[in-house]
Design brief:
alpha+beta, 19-stranded mixed beta sheet, globular
Length: 388
């Protein structure tokens, strides 16, 4: 419901958009408690909007204030005797602008809806279950609407929280979000699970988890850190390539980029099991500070104790290099800084490095590495050429 409180406040502040007005109108009309809350908030804001909710004078004052920032308001003129009833009707009419109540069920495309050809390389893109795509900014607050004007979540800066309330879905439908190189993003799924997505990652997830489904499955490409909401009756499953990570409530990191040989699962807290999708009975269980590596071509698991801070450093905007080869470091830098390397110094590929960088720019990182094994580099926009 907090999404609608946000819309009510935007309405009172006269910053609400057309699509948001329609979503709020639907919510107000959904039941009597919503209407009651809406009316009470208008009364409470009497210093800014209405002095006396039941007076014609108050209605005229409210109408004049809204007119200043809201186009095409339909005014309803009635006698003082019926003022209170028609104030509510006018407020709802303001919510939908010039649209009539008969057309409220028409499909409404949010101003953030985009066509495929309008999406740029560096855009964070959210594709909803209804097929619409939205470019998500990493600043400001806004409500996320589907094509019918239903609220499905809210965005605050570089995170989205998906609505746990609202419309009850009988069928499982999936949304998908893509995070480009150079950016990270946070999601809160409808069951309360928190997901941090690293650069170059894609997550496919239920827009709302359905009670009739026995598990909570999401699909990952790239890297993500999960803080899973506990539910003993419904395990949370992360599917990556040909393997699953199964949990009931815990914190862990999963990395599975296309160009990597391994799927790496690092457990920070709680317990998880990993297994091939075709062999669910052959589980490998992990306890905190252990990591499982699944080789994509050999279809084999390896388990080892690790320093989990190394594998979660990206969430703190740190780059930790722990016995990585030069070509592996270049891959990390490409994802983190959204650049492309051309390496003409092939002799460096087998060199191994260690180090830690705290939110340093890419030129600083390259200078530091070159102190160990000298090389030259040339930066041309987002193309970096390495030479001897």
């Amino acid at each position: 419901m907090h999404h609608y409180w946000f819309l009510v406040e935007k309405f009172l502040n006269k910053t609400i958009s057309k699509e948001e007005r329609i979503a709020l109108e639907k919510w107000v009309l959904r039941d009597k408690q919503n209407m009651k809350y809406f009316k009470n908030r208008i009364k409470e804001s009497n210093n800014k909007v209405l002095v006396d909710f039941d007076s014609e004078k108050a209605f005229i004052k409210f109408d004049d204030e809204v007119k200043a920032k809201t186009s095409k308001i339909i005014m309803l003129r009635r006698t003082v005797r019926y003022a209170a009833v028609f104030i509510i009707f006018s407020l709802i009419t303001v919510l939908v602008g010039k649209d009539s109540f008969n057309n409220l069920n028409d499909a409404i495309v949010s101003s953030s809806d985009v066509k495929k050809e309008e999406i740029k390389e560096g855009d964070i893109v959210l594709k909803l279950a209804d097929g619409t795509s939205k470019v998500i900014s990493t600043s400001g607050d806004e409500i996320v609407l589907d094509e019918n004007g239903n609220v499905i979540g809210s965005k605050s800066d570089n995170s989205i929280a998906f609505d746990a309330e609202g419309e009850i879905l009988e069928d499982l439908v999936y949304s998908e979000i893509y995070i480009p190189f150079g950016q990270t993003f946070k999601l809160k799924l409808s069951d309360g699970t928190k997901v941090w997505l690293n650069a170059g990652s894609r997550l496919r997830f239920p827009q709302k988890f359905v009670k009739s489904i026995s598990d909570r499955t999401v699909y990952l490409e790239g890297e993500a850190y999960f803080d899973v909401a506990k539910n003993k009756n419904k395990p949370f499953i992360v599917n990556v390539n040909d393997m699953n990570v199964k949990v009931y409530g815990t914190q862990f990191n999963v990395s599975s980029y296309k160009e990597d040989d391994n799927v790496t699962t690092t457990l920070v807290e709680g317990s998880v099991s990993v297994y091939e999708t075709e062999n669910p009975d052959e589980e490998l269980k992990l306890t905190p500070s252990y990591q499982a590596k699944y080789h994509k071509t050999k279809n084999a698991f390896k388990k080892a104790k690790v320093n989990t801070d190394i594998y979660t450093a990206w969430m703190r905007n740190k780059l930790v290099i722990d016995n990585l080869k030069f070509k592996e470091i270049l891959l990390l830098l490409e994802r983190k800084h959204h650049v492309k390397f051309i390496n003409n110094a092939k002799n460096l590929n087998s060199e191994t490095y260690k180090g830690e960088f705290d939110n340093e720019n890419i030129e600083s990182v390259l200078k530091t590495i070159s102190l160990s094994t000298p090389f030259k580099y040339e930066i041309n926009q987002n193309i970096i050429t390495i030479s001897k």
